[in-house]
């Protein structure tokens, strides 16, 4: 295969995310406009919580000052210790459970929620040392957390989430509403 054909085939190859994950979205989290979250659901039920490309942190060019997994005095997501096949010790989270708080350099604070019910398998400690990962690679190395829904709930977790097409429809309606003069 010559070099041009090889380069073209590499450009067309889908990423791991596109290949193995289904994207689901939760818009306007807790009634806050544009605070959209993205859930990447793998075929093995594991879900990765990320920021949607429309989240203000990604859209408005914010610089991240700090990321804090300490939710309250008695609850730190960093103290989540999981072991064994049945994931003993994992914190159970509901769909509105806060995962972390992100503070930007302009002092705006955003709370990132789990969006789904399940066991918290891990939080991304890499973004604590390198917050830029969240801005540069939100769907891969800049993910927030990994959650495993209960087996019996794995089909129903997407009921409150939007598909990619539904999400794009909401975004287009949102942009039309914002462009209309008040």
Element string (H = helix, E = strand)? HHEEEHEEEEEEEHHEH
Secondary-structure-based class equals alpha+beta
* Backbone shape: globular
Share of residues in helices: 10-25%
Average pLDDT: 86
Number of H/I helices: 6
Tell me how many strands there are.
11
Strand content: 25-35%
| Main beta-sheet annotation | 6 strands, antiparallel
Distance between the termini: 58 Å
Sheet with the most strands: spatial strand order: 1-2-3-11-10-7
Radius of gyration: 18 Å
Regions with pLDDT < 50 over 5+ consecutive residues? Answer: none
Please describe what this structure looks like.
- The chain is built from six helices and eleven strands.
- It is α+β, with helices and mostly antiparallel strands.
- The strands form three sheets. It has a six-stranded antiparallel beta sheet.
- The longest helix is centred in the C-terminal third of the chain and has 16 residues.
- The N and C termini lie far apart (58 Å).
- The model has no long low-confidence stretch (mean pLDDT 86).
């Amino acid at each position: 295969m010559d070099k041009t054909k090889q380069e073209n085939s590499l450009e067309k190859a889908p990423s791991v995310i596109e290949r193995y994950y289904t994207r689901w979205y939760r818009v306007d989290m807790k009634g806050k406009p544009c605070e959209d979250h993205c859930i990447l659901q793998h075929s093995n039920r594991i879900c990765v919580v990320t920021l949607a490309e429309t989240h203000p942190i990604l859209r408005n060019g914010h610089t991240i000052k700090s990321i804090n997994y300490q939710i309250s005095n008695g609850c730190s997501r960093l103290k989540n210790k999981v072991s064994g096949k049945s994931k003993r010790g994992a914190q159970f989270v509901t769909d509105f459970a806060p995962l972390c708080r992100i503070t930007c350099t302009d002092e705006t604070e955003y709370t990132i929620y789990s969006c789904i019910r399940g066991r918290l398998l891990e939080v991304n400690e890499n973004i604590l040392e390198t917050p830029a990962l969240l801005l540069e690679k939100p769907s891969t190395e800049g993910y927030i957390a990994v959650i495993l829904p209960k087996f019996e709930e794995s089909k129903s977790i997407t009921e409150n989430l939007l598909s990619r097409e539904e999400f794009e429809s909401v975004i287009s309606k949102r942009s039309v509403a914002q462009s209309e003069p008040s």
